[in-house]
Please model this.
Amino acid sequence: MIEMKELLALLPETRRKLLLFLCEHRHEDRLRTFRQISLQTQLTPITVRNAMFEFKAFGFVKIYEVGRAYVVVPTEKLKEVCEILSR
Model:
């Protein structure tokens, strides 16, 4: 059976970097916009935007539109995946 860490290795580098970033910050109560994530991960805003909408489709995050910005909120599903990855 394929382990979760092996599946993570199959992800493109940008997706893997963003998923690991979300896992690192999953317990923080701070809300982050696409732009803030972009600045912290040093990825382009469009890359972050596209990846976050992919993660939303998987149920890893919820995305809320606040004014002209989008806010990313991790879900319990993401937190479960992060726990498995941290083992």
